[in-house]
Amino acid sequence: MPAKEGSLRHYASRYAVSHELVRKLKAEGIDLEDTEAVAARLEQEGAGLPEVPRTIPSPVSGAGLGAAIERLKAAEEALHEDYLVALQRRDRSAGVLLKQWSSVVEQLRKVEADNPSIQQAKAESISKEDLASVLASLFANLRQDLDSLARRVGSELEMKTVLEIEPVIQRETSRIVDSLFACAYLKGAVNE
C-alpha cells in the first residue's frame, strides 16, 4: 500500500531515511516538503540524502489534458533517467526513484486507458521505424523522378533559347512539387 502523502512513511520513503529520523526532523520544525532544507539538515546529521531528487522542469505550461499528459511524460522521462543513474552508481536512492518512476508510469497508463481519444490516436499512429521506411520510399521515388527529368524533357529543350527553356523547367518543377504534395511518391514513382 502506498504511503499517504504527508505521512511519516511518505517522507521516509521519499528521502530514503528511517521513520525515526523523519519524526526527529518534524519535531525540529523542518519543513518536510522543502527538499533542500531536509537535505541540509540531513547533512548536519551525517546521513545526507543519497541524491536529492531533482525538481522536474515543466516543459509544457497551460491547462488541459494534453498539457498534463506532456508534463507527466516529461516527469516519467526525468525520473527514469534519475533511476538509471542511481542504479548505475549503486545509490540507495534507486529504490525511492523506482517507486516514483513506477507511480508516474501508472498514472500515464491510467490516463491513456481512461481516455478514448488517446486510444484512438495510438491506434492511428505509426512507429518511428514505419515512418522512416515510408519517408525513405517517398524520397527514393522523388529522387528517381528528379533523375529522369533530363530524359523526359531533353528532346523538348534541344536548340531552345533560355526564354523557351524556362517555361518547360517551370512546368516540370510544378509537376514534381504537386506530386510531392499529393503524396504521389508514396504510391510509386511518378512517370508520364
Quick tags:
192 residues, mainly alpha, 3 domains, 10 helices
Describe the structure.
- The chain is mostly helical and 192 residues long.
- The chain folds into 3 domains: 1-49, no CATH class; 56-125, no CATH class; 128-187, no CATH class.
- Helix content is 70%, strand content 0%.
- It contains 10 helices and no strands.
- Helix 1 (8-15) packs across helix 2.
- It is elongated and about 95 Å long.
- Mean pLDDT is 76; it is low at 48-53.
Structural class: mainly alpha
Q: Compute the average pLDDT.
A: 76
- SSE ordering: HHHHHHHHHH
Number of helical elements: 10
Count of strand segments: 0
Could you outline the blueprint of secondary structure elements for this entry?
Blueprint lengths: L7 H8 L3 H9 L7 H11 L19 H24 L5 H21 L1 H9 L3 H20 L1 H9 L4 H20 L2 H4 L5
